[in-house]
Amino acid sequence: MMSQETTRWIGHACSYTPTPLIHASGFTPYRLLPMGNSPDRAGQLLHDNLCPHVKRILDRAMENDLPDLHGMVFMNCCDAMRRLSDAWRAARPTDRVALVNLPVLAAESAISFFADELTRLSETLSTWSGQSFNQADISASIAKFDEIADLLGELSNRAHTGTLEGGSSRLQDLFNRAATESVDRAVELLRTVAEEMELPAAAHNGVPVYLFGNVLPDPEAFALFQSCGVHIAGDSVCTGMRAFSRIGGNDSDDVFVRLARGLLDQPRCARTFDPSRPGKIAQDVLAEARACQAKGVIAYTMKFCDPYISRLPAIREVLREAGLPFLLLEGDCTMRSMGQQKTRIEAFTEMLR
Amino acid sequence: MMLQYFERLASRLDAKIAKNPDIPNARRKFAREIAQLGTRLYSGQHRIAWCGVIAPFDMLAAMNITSCFVEFVGAMLASTGAVGTFLEESEHAGYAADTCGYHRSVLGAAMKGLMPLPDVMIATSSPCTGGLAAMENLARMFNKELFVLDVPASDTPESVRYLANQYMDMFRFISSRTGETIDEDKLREAIVKSNQARELMVEVYRLAQNVPSPASGQSLANFGIVMALFLGTDAGIEIAQAYRDEFESMVKTGQSGAPAEKIRLLWLQNRIQFKNPLIKMLEQEYQASIVIDELNDITWEAIDPADPFVGVAKRTITIPFNGEINWRLNHVRHLSTAYKIDGAVNPCHWGCRQGTGARGLIQAGLKEIGIPVVNLEVDCVDTRNFAEGQLRTRLEAFMEMLRTSPSAA
Amino acid sequence: MYYLGVDLGSLSCDAVLLGGNGGVMASSVVPTGARNQEAIARAVDEVLKVAGITEDQIKATVSTGYGRDRVEKRLAAVTEITCHARGIRNLFGETQVLIDIGGQDSKAVRLAADGLVTDFAMNDKCAAGTGRFLEAMARALQVDIEELSDLDLGASGSVTLSSMCTVFAESEVVSLIADGVAVNEIVSGLNRAIASRIVALVRRIAPASDGLSIAMSGGVAHNHGVVRALSQAFGTTISVPPKPATIGALGAALIAREKDNQGR
User: Fold this and answer.
1) Which residues of chain B does A101 touch, with a Cβ-Cβ cutoff of 8 Å?
2) What are the tens digits of pLDDT across the range A175-225?
3) C44-76 pLDDT per residue, tens
4) Does the pLDDT value for residue A84 go beyond 90?
5) Which chain A positions have a beta carbon within 8 Å of C200's beta carbon?
6) Are C84 and C132 part of one and the same domain?
7) How high is the pLDDT of residue A192?
8) A37/C160 touch (CB, cutoff 8 Å), yes or no
C-alpha cells in the first residue's frame, strides 16, 4: 500500500495529458478509469446519450469514488470531455480544475500553440503545488515516463508474441497500475515484471487478431477475448500503449515544445488527424494489422464516441478490400456490456480458424 | 435536383417580393438569399468552399468564393422533407445512427452525388468534434485536402493570435489551390460591410426585446446562424435592414409578431428544420411566442477593417457555444433577462454532444435565475424520428406549468 | 353532479368518476386495443354502470393521456403530467416528487407546497426504466409479468446489469440465464437497473431528493420488487395508491370539477 499522505494526486482522464509535466510539478498523475460501481448519475448533470467513458468518470466524481485529489487536469480533446470538465466544476465546486486546449492536428503552428498551453498549465500547477520547477525537472520527468513507456512497450510486445505470463489481461492490469500508482512504484513494478521468465512463444493457441478502438480498461475484457480463442497480436487502444507513448525528443529542445510534439505526434486518439491525408487512419489500421500478421481485426468502440463512429466506415471499407475480416463491438467501456459479446467473438474466431 | 429546387424557390420569392415592394419583406428577402446561395452552390459555375460552422464567411466572401457550412445542406434536405433517403444511405454505409443527423444527412447526400465538389474545404474544430470528423470524411470522399481552423476554447491573447495566424495560412492555402489572390481592398470592403450588417442586427435584436415582441416563431428562425453566411456582402446588409425596418414599424404600432403574446419563450440550440406543428401550436393554443433564439443575438465588437484577422479571431473564439459551459450560460441568462423570458425550450438534438450534452447544466443554470426549461428529446433533422405526440405532451405540460405558476404572464 | 376523467393511454384507457363532493364513485381500466373510440366508450360505460348513472348526468369531462384529443365530449384536454400530479396529491397530500412509470414512458414530477407542478422530466425515447423493459425481461425469463413482482425475494444483489441501454440489458439477461444464474438475482438486478434509471430521472428535477416525500403512479407500481428497489435507492418509503394506473384519470376528473366550479 502506498502512503497516501505523501502522494499528492492530480487526476486526469485523457491519453493526451502531459503526465511528465504533472510529475515534475511535484504531483502524481492519477488516471481516472471508468471502472467501479458508482451509481449511474451523470445524465442528471449532462445527458444520458453521451460518451460512457465521460459518464462513468463523472459518476465516480459524484459518488466521491476518488483518491484524495489535489486537482483535475482536463484536456479539451472532444466535446464530451469538455462537458465533463464543466460538470466536474458543477458537481465539485471547490476542486481545482484546469482545462487545457488541445490542437486537432500536429502542424508546427499547433505544436507551438500547444507548447504555450503547456507553459500555462505549468504555471497553474506551480500555483497549486506552491513550489516552482524548471525545464530540467520536466526533462527528468520525461525520462522517467519514457522509461515506463519503454518497459510497457517491451511487455506489450511480449503479450503480442504470447510470451508474457498472464497475457493481455495481465498487461492491461499493468497499464492500469502504471496509470494510477506513483511513478517510482510503477517503474519498480514494471522492471520486476520485465525480469520475469518469458513463456515459450508457441504457448498460446489463439487466433491472432489486431484489436483497435478507444477505452477498454477492464482486464477481464482481455480475459474474455482469450477465453473466446482470440490472441491479441497487436493493439491500439486508448487505455493501452497509446496512454504511454514515448515523448522522445532531446534534452536540448525547449521542453514545452518537446512535450507538445511528443504528445501530438503519436496517434493517441482518432480525434487528432492529418488534414492533408483525410481518412488515413484506415490505412494505419490495415498496416498495423498486417504487421502483426493478424487474421482478423476487432474494433472495440464505445457508443456515442464521435471521433471513432465517423472513422469506422472507412476502416471497414479498407479492411474489406484487403480481405481482412472485421468485427465491430460496441459497448459502454465496462464489462457490463461485454458478456453478451462472447458469442460474437467466439463466432468470429471460429470463422478465422 | 437541388439546383432546380433552389431556382424555383428563388423565383417564387422574387415574385412575392415584387408584389409588395414597399414593405420590408424581411423574411422573404432572407429566404430568397438562402435560395440564391443554394443556386450558387449547385450551379457548378462558382468557386465553392465547404466549411465548418464558424468559418470566417465574410473574409471568404472577399475572395470570390461561395462558402457555406455543410450542415446547411442537412437543414435544407430536412426542410424539403426528403432527408430520409440520405440518412439511410449513410447508415447503410456504416455510420452509426447515434451521430448528429446534420452530418449523417450531408454524408449521405455526398454518397448520392448531391454535394457539389468543392474547390476548397475549410473545417473548424469548433463547435463540435462530430462536425470536424464529418469534414474529414467529406474530404476523403471528394479526395480533397482539408484545411483545418483549430479554434481554441479559451479567450486569451495567445489563442486569438494563434487563430488569427491560421486565417492568414488559410488564405495562402486557398490562393495556392484556386489561383485566386487575396485582394486587400476587397477584404477591407467585406469587413466594412460585415460591420454594417452587424450594427443593423444589433438593432434588430434590441427591437425584438420589446414587449410585445415583433418577432414571431417563424420570423427569426435560423437567423443568426444563417446571417453569418451573408456577412461581408450587400445582401447581408439589405436583409438586416429589412428586419430592422419591419421590427421598427411593428414596435411603433405595438404590433406583436405572434398573434397574441402572453408567454415569452427562449428557444435554445437549434430549430427543428422540417415542417412541424409545434410552434404554431404554441402560438395559437397558448399564445406563447418565441421571442429570441439562443443562436440569435450573438453579437461581437466591430472589426477593424485594417486589421481584420485579430478581430475575426476574437469574434470566433468568443462565440458562446465555443468554450466552457459558463459562456453559454452567461449568454442565455442574459437573454432571459433582456427579453423578459417566461420559459426556455431546449430541443435536445439527437447526437449532439456539445449542446445537448450540457442539458442538465443548462437547465440548472437557468433554474438559478428562475427560468424553467422544458427539454425536448428530438432530432432536428430526421423526419423519420419525429414523435409529435410525445413532444406535444411535453410542451403542453410546460405551458400548463407556466400558466399556473405565479410568475407566468 | 358528476365529473369524469378519461385517460386514454397507448395500452389502457382508464376512467374515474367523481361525485359532487369529490369522492370517487367508480373507476375502470380497459385495454385500449386498436380502436380508441370503442375503448373510451367501454371505460366510460363501466364507471356509469357501477355508479348507476347515465351519461347526461356528467357535468364535465377532462381528458388526458396520449389520446386526450380523441375524447370527444370534453371540457378540456390536459396533459398527464398535470393530471397525475393533481391525482396523487389528492391521495397523498404531502407528495413532493411523483414517479410515474407506465408502459411506454416514465416521468418524474416535482410538486410545490401548493401541489402545483414546478418541474418535470420524462423518458419517452428509451425503453429502459419503463413497463416495456419489464415485459421484455418477463419474456426472457419466461414468466408472466405479474409473476415478476416478488421474484426478487431472497436475492443477495450479486447481479448488476447495464443500466445504460435495454439492448445491452436484454442480452445480458439471456447470457445470465444461460449461465445458470439464480432467477431471483437476475430479477433483483433488473429492479435495481430500473431504479437506477428512475433515480437519474428524479435527480433532474430534484437534485437533492433526501427528505422529500415520494409517491408513485402508473401500472409498474403494482410490481412490488420495483417499488422495493426504488425505496432502497431513495432511502425512503414510496407511497403507492391502491389503483396506481388510474391516477391520471383521477387527476383529470378533479380538474374537471375545478374548471366547472370556476365557470370555465
Assistant:
1) 152-154, 159
2) 999 999 999 999 999 999 999 999 887 667 899 999 999 999 999 999 999
3) 999 999 999 999 999 999 999 988 989 998 999
4) yes
5) 40-41, 43-44, 48
6) no
7) 97
8) yes
How many Cβ pairs closer than 8 A exist between chain A and B? 145
To the nearest whole Å, the CA of C14 is away from the closest chain A CA by 32
Collect all residues of chain B within an 8 Å Cβ-Cβ radius of residue C105. 390
- Chain B: touching chains (3 or more CB pairs < 8 Å): A, C
* Dist. CA B92–CA A254, nearest whole Å: 49
Domain boundaries, chain A: 9-133
**A9-133 maps to which CATH number?**
3.40.50.11890
Please write down the long-range contacts of C135-139, taking CB distance under 8 Å and 24 or more positions apart.
C135/C103, C136/C166, C136/C170, C137/C169, C137/C170, C137/C173, C137/C187, C137/C190
Q: Are strands A230-236 and A97-101 parallel, antiparallel or unpaired?
A: unpaired
Q: Does B177 touch chain A (CB under 8 A)?
A: no
All structural domains of chain B with their residue ranges: 41-183
Per-residue pLDDT of A297-308, as tens digits, reads: 999 999 999 999
Please identify every stretch of chain B with a pLDDT value under 50, giving residue numbers as ranges.
408-409
Residue A113: closest CA among chain B residues belongs to which residue? B162
Question: Are C78 and C135 within one domain?
Answer: no
User: Does residue C146 sit in the same domain as residue C194?
Assistant: yes
Q: Does domain B41-183 have CATH number 3.40.50.11890?
A: yes
**Measured between alpha carbons, how far is A323 from A318 in angstroms, rounded to an integer?**
9
CA pair distance A334, A302, nearest whole angstrom? 9
Yes or no, beta carbons of B400 and C105 under 8 Å apart: no
Strand partners of residue A213: A300
Q: At what angle do helices C183-205 and C131-141 cross, to 10 degrees?
A: 170
* Contact indicator for B129, B103 with CB cutoff of 8 Å: no
Instruction: Report the number of distinct structural domains present in chain C.
Output: 2
CATH code of residue C49:
3.30.420.40
What are the residues of chain A with a beta carbon less than 8 Å away from any beta carbon of chain C? 37, 39-41, 43-44, 48, 52, 303, 331-332, 334, 336-337, 339-340, 342
* All partners of chain C with 3 or more CB pairs under 8 angstroms: A, B
